[in-house]
Each structure stands twice: as C-alpha cells, then as structure tokens.
Design goal:
15 helices; seven-stranded mixed sheet; alpha/beta; 37% helix; 20% strand; single chain; 513 residues; five-stranded mixed sheet
C-alpha cells in the first residue's frame, strides 16, 4: 500500500497547496530514532552544544523572511505575529546556549567523607546526565515557538539529548524547512544530521512514543491527544517521562472594587486578550468571574463594544473552525446562557469572536453547565456573574488545573488592604502562573518563568518555557567512593570545567555566573 501523502493546506481557503512528504512507516520511524540515538555522543561536549544552539538561532534569523512566509501560508497567523514569534524562538535558543555555558543546570554537588556525621558520610559526587533521545510533538498554534525549533527541542538539545520531532499536520512544509535549517547548523559543528529527526503522520506519532530508544517526550496539544500519548508512555515495558501541555481554562477573577474602579478598562483589556491570535493562545482567558450589578454591567458593556468591533478571523485549520463553531453553539444553547456578542461562523472560512454570560450559580451546581468549564479553542470566553465572594469562591473550587489564574484588584486591594492576599491563596492551587492586574496571553522567556500547572494543564510539575525546562531531560547520578581518576570532569575536585557547584556544603558560583 502506498504511503499516505502529507499536504500543506491554506487555512484561508481550505485548499491543498503542495505535497510536502509522505507519512512515515514504522520502519522509517525506527531508522530516524536510531539515527538520533547514534548522535548522542556528538552532544557530549557542552561547548559544542552551546555553539550549535547559537548557530541554529543565527541561521533561523538569516532564513527569517522565507520561513515567516511559509508559516503564514500554512497558519494564516500573519507576518507581524510570526516575525515576533520567530525572534522569540531564536532568543530562546541563545538563552539555552547561555545556560549550557554556565553549567548550573548540571546541579553538581560534592561531599567529601565525614566520619563524624550520623551516620558517617562516604565520598559522594552527584550531577545530572541526559536521558537520551527525546520525542517532541509539535503544537499547531505556535509554528516556531512550540514546534520544530521550539522550547522542547531547544531545551532537549541543551540537555545533550537528540530530538525526533513529530511534525504538526497544520504546518508540514514549514516543519521541513526549519528542520533543514537546524540540521545544516548541526553539520557546521560536525554534529550528525540525525541529531534532529522529523516524522509525519498520526501513526508515526504512535510508533514514536512506543519506540524503545525514546527516553522521554514533550507534547503540546489537546487533552484527548495528550492523554492518549501519556497513557502510551506509561504503558511501555519501560515507562518514560511524558511532559505534556494539554488544556487550560485560565480563569480570571475581577473583584467588585476593581470593577468599580476601572471596569471599562478591564473589559477592553479582556477583549484584546481573548481575541489575540484569533483566540488560539493556550493561555487565553476562557472563564472570567465578574460581579453582578452596575459595575460589572459596565465591564461587560465595554467588553461587548470591543469584541463587537473585532473583524472575522481565520483559525489554523477547518477542523478547528468546525469544532469552534459547534462548541460555541452548544454552550450558547445552555439554559440561562446569553450571548451579548455571538461567537460562531462568519463566512465559509472565517469565524467571529464573541462571548457568553451565565449566572455563576449555574457553574456551582454543575450538571450540563460543566461544559462551560472546559476549554473552547478559539475567540470566545465565558463571563460568569457572581453575587458575592462566597459564590465566586465556590466556582473557583470546582475548576480543574490551569496554566494561569488571574485576579484583578483595586488599588486599595493591591496595596494589601482587603481580600487581595486571600484571593491569591485561593488561586495559587489552580495554576502554575498567577497574575495580578494583567492578562495571561504572552509567555515571557525568562529564568523565573513557569509554563505549566496542575492536570490537565500539564502532566508533570515541570515548565516548558524558561531555563528550568532543561531539567525535564536530565536525571541525577551519584558516584560513591569513586577514585578521582575515574570521575567525570564535572565531579573532580579541581573543577577543570569551572562549573558552579556545592562543595562540602558551600556554594561555589564558578566564573561564568
């Protein structure tokens, strides 16, 4: 039977643009994984890894115009957005190169023998080593930052792990082009091209997670798809870590005092956040608790005015468009749900943004209205009007895990007078990132960043953005009573690699910190 073709499709028209590849067979997946496994040794030199990451960023920059054009043709996300995303992706590669150079991620700890301790301590030396080949499942909505050259790939390479990417079907042509750029960068440093593998096809993705040479996996996508892969990773004869980002409602709570103080501004800000990228951000605010009464009414009117002025948009593919239209309509049909600005279809290929309102009490009682507590991908949000703090708290108590949770406070509350601290305490168990008086769309690449949260936001406690994302692809190893001549250079007393470390309980920063 002939291999299934992989087509590049224009989401603005739904028409096929070109055949890019064919779906990989099980034998082809095996060959790609084995090539990646064979390339592990080429990443052993930290200086070489850092140089490779910087060259990859430089080559992506140089190919930027061509890559952005290819991305826009397959995603309809627009040149300005994609140009910024590519710049973010290159910055992220360079940031991981700096982390590799610094070496703190190796977490070196050396304890000399201490016979006076209870019990006595032998000579112990610990650091972290790469897990092996990492499978990366690309996301649809960020064709650079969460795809072939994105955070999972960059952090895995920084850790010293070769990568095999399962390309997303919404941008296969771009995936091939970017993979080519990264492989060329590898060759410049004498690294085998197999260090970055790429496969297409649903079945190929299943074969990938099952392959015995795959040591870990990163995923960004739907709850259904991510959970299936998570279960497959756990069901292997040798289970592997699966770091998946699955789904998030990203709740927002607006206090009564904040609505009185700046309700119109909050409404306008919400409109901008929920419609950004046609509502296709993983951190889009999908549920907003707004007080009942005049102040909340003014906020909702401001939101309606802003959302009503938003033009039609194109989603990443027609399957997502159909799911959005059906999902918005199903939610709008629920009892006591109103649509001040109706979301839905707008022409054959586009959608219109909108929002729904519901009494918060309906969400407390559950039942069919639990649908409103599930993510609806696209430009729609749900405004739950709460009568008092107790009702708002009852809604929060029913929410699943999220990437973000946001509270909008008045100036008085933000200064520590009022319920601000209590509300933060209520939101903290719900999410990995808690915001005050801001909007969650936009995830900065920074050392302190955390992009993850309780299930189903993610399947692990790790982050996929920021420097500590590298920790997902490492495991600790301790050497006990090992002669100095046999130790890895990272663990020798004379510290030939100038690494930051904890030496006999004292922190030694190293010259690069």
């Amino acid at each position: 039977m002939a291999a299934a073709p992989v087509w590049s499709v224009d989401p603005r028209t739904g028409k096929q643009r070109e055949q890019v590849a064919v779906e990989a067979t099980a034998q082809e997946v095996d060959a790609v994984v084995r090539a990646a496994h064979a390339a592990r040794g080429a990443l052993a030199d930290r200086r070489l890894r850092a140089a490779f990451l910087r060259t990859a960023a430089a080559r992506l920059d140089e190919a930027g115009k061509r890559l952005v054009e290819a991305a826009d043709a397959e995603t309809a996300l627009g040149t300005p957005r994609l140009t910024g995303e590519l710049a973010r992706t290159c910055y992220q590669l360079r940031a991981f190169a700096d982390i590799v150079d610094e070496g703190a991620f190796l977490d070196v700890v050396i304890d000399h023998p201490d016979d006076t301790a209870t019990p006595p301590v032998p000579d112990l030396r610990r650091h972290k080593v790469p897990l092996g080949v990492v499978a990366v499942y690309s996301a649809s909505n960020f064709p650079f930052a969460f795809s072939v050259p994105g955070g999972d790939t960059a952090s895995a390479l920084a850790a010293g792990c070769p990568v095999v990417v399962k390309a997303h079907p919404d941008h296969p042509a771009l995936s091939e082009q970017v993979a080519g750029v990264l492989r060329a960068a590898a060759v410049e440093h004498g690294i085998p091209v197999g260090v970055l593998g790429l496969v297409h096809g649903f079945d190929a993705g299943v074969e990938l997670i099952r392959h015995p040479r795959i040591a870990a996996a990163g995923f960004t996508g739907s709850v259904r798809g991510g959970r299936a892969l998570f279960d497959a990773a756990a069901a292997r004869e040798v289970p592997i870590p699966f770091h998946g980002e699955l789904g998030s409602l990203n709740p927002v709570l607006v206090t009564e005092a904040a609505a009185v103080e700046r309700g119109e501004a909050i409404g306008a800000g919400l409109a901008g956040s929920m419609t950004l990228g046609t509502g296709q951000f993983c951190v889009k605010p999908g549920l907003v608790l707004v007080p009942a009464g005049a102040a909340g009414d003014a906020l909702v009117k401001s939101l309606a005015d802003a959302v009503g002025g938003t033009g039609p948009g194109v989603l990443l593919d027609h399957r997502m468009r159909d799911n959005f239209v059906a999902g918005a309509a199903e939610r709008a049909r629920l009892p006591e749900v109103d649509a001040p600005v109706a979301p839905g279809a707008d022409g054959e290929h586009t959608v219109s943004a909108g929002f729904l309102t519901v009494p918060a009490g309906r969400l407390v009682r559950g039942g069919e209205h639990d649908l409103l507590l599930e993510e609806c991908f696209g430009p729609v949000t749900v405004i739950a009007r709460y009568r008092d703090d107790t009702e708002a708290g009852a809604v929060l108590a029913r929410l699943p895990g999220n990437l973000t949770a946001t509270v909008h406070l008045s100036a008085e509350e933000a200064a520590g007078r009022g319920r601000g601290a209590q509300l933060l305490a209520e939101l903290t168990p719900l999410a990995g990132r808690v915001l005050v008086n801001g909007w969650p769309t936009g995830v900065a690449v920074a050392p302190a960043q955390h992009h993850g949260g309780p299930y189903p936001a993610t399947t692990s406690t790790s982050t996929s953005v920021g420097g500590t994302a590298v920790e997902r692809w490492l495991r600790p190893v301790v050497y006990q009573q090992t002669p100095e001549a046999l130790l890895p250079p990272e663990l020798r007393d004379d510290n030939p690699l100038d690494l930051p470390r904890r030496f006999n309980g004292r922190l030694e920063p190293g010259s690069k910190q």
